[in-house]
Amino acid sequence: xxxxxxxxxxxxxxxxxxxxxxxxxxxxxxxxxxxxxxxxxxxxxxxxxxxxxxxxxxxxxxxxxxxxxxxxxxxxxxxxxxxxxxxxxxxxxxxxxxxxxxxxxxxxxxxxxxxxxxxxxxxxxxxxxxxxxxxxxxxxxxxxxxxxxxxxxxxxxxxxxxxxxxxxxxxxxxxxxxxxxxxxxxxxxxxxxxxxxxxxxxxxxxxxxxxxxxxxxxxxxxxxxxxxxxxxxxxxxxxxxxxxxxxxxxxxxxxxxxxxxxxxxxxxxxxxxxxxxxxxxxxxxxxxxxxxxxxxxxxxxxxxxxxxxxxxxxxxxxxxxxxxxxxxxxxxxxxxxxxxxxxxxxxxxxxxxxxxxxxxxxxxxxxxxxxxxxxxxxxxxxxxxxxxxxxxxxxxxxxxxxxxxxxxxxxxxxxxxxxxxxxxxxxxxxxxxxxxxxxxxxxxxxxxxxxxxxxxxxxxxxxxxxxxxxxxxxxxxxxxxxxxxxxxxxxxxxxxxxxxxxxxxxxxxxxxxxxxxxxxxxxxxxxxxxxxxxxxxxxxxxxxxxxxxxxxxxxxxxxxxxxxxxxxxxxxxxxxxxxxxxxxxxxxxxxxxxxxxxxxxxxxxxxxxxxxxxxxxxx
Length: 619
Known about the structure:
This protein starts with a helix and ends in a 9-residue tail after the last helix. 39% of the residues are buried. The protein is of the alpha/beta class. 56% of the residues lie in helices and 11% in strands. A hairpin with an 8-residue loop joins strand 1 (30-32) and strand 2 (41-44).
């Protein structure tokens, strides 16, 4: 049994004897004692004043004295500070707990009859994955692993946005400027090749728009706007054309007309357009899979917008018949969510076509029918907060059985030190380039230190990948998802400090200890060992692993696990500096410290695997 559970049960018994009531965990708040005070756990006595009708200090004194006299094998010492009872447990309890950790292994969670579906990544097929996708992917993957660890069945899915005007821009640019290029003929990874044509379209469109602005037609439109605009709404010629870009694309641009025509043909099932679309999407999918493999992530199922964009209309018709939605005079369908503190939202245009919200309604229903998940987690950046508030509100009004289980894991956008990334301008941090960079940095760092010279070349490369990806993944996951990130590539590949490689190094150090010892920790009886303060500090931290996993699952925040792993690694490095393991002062001390090292390694490896990081045996 965990020491805090033993202590809680003892306090329940003592307070019943003293005050005649069975108290709950909420009424007896226990937490690890702050480092500046003596003790292992601290009991807050203020909630008991109403029951005991005494001051917090008096209550703390009474409970402390009763624990000392009634449970001498459990409680070694107590002290009272301003209504807080600090309790030190006996060495025997901690040694027994260390034995149980070594024997029983990692925390075990009961299997739960609940499915959690996690949607993440959700890329577009007009460009490769970039840094923003990496944060999304790592958050989704980590949460799915944490859910599995805590007893749920986790289902991993992605929605691939494989249709629309942006995809047609890439296709059109390839037809106009590609000269039949393929990934094989160009030597360019498929998703990168398609992304290059998306950027090329934008470049050609900018040139076309700039040339048009010097025409008489452009000047007439600007003057007409000036004449019609109210005086206080008048803007400069430059600002007018900045805002007129979309109108130009939709009404005037020859390139825009060709892209829109291609989209219409796609929707009509034109064989030639569909053939180009299918070929270029296949290039992109192969590219995506290569990136996913490099990151070590996967999915149970992929949904495609080309299959889902017509979904949701049956839900709209059902909502109309029940009065949840209403139809405007122009034929468009809306919902009024002002009572929910939101707004009015269109669900079908006047021409009967769907909007994104419509297909999201249908996709949610489709996925529920596929898996009957109790919860559906959408890992999407905070720019879409309002969209998901509306989506969830509509589902509740429709009475969908899964509505209460829909969750938006909202995360802050990732920006560069120079500002926001822009796919159309090619100013993104490419995922593949970033992966190569961190692996290269790990290789360079190891070579500078002269590490690994005795390791076979093939194993060295595997270690470089593990260390480089640890640097990247940990840099992303250690940040609370709610916070926006300024991503500095140089900082992310720093192999020292609060980093993934620092944690890996603690694990590698432990593996080195056991190689030198020539054996693992034994099942020897550790009774009678008097733990030093530094040894107990490490053990106390190791005892908290379960609660950090639960916090991560409950709060949809894998940074709890990441930062706990760093705290454990830091504590072990200090322990290693302060205590000799293999040259301990006695055989019993050596065995205790081998057990501490073994439990530390087990927890570090498990915690890092939960956030998608592999642990090398050597570095």
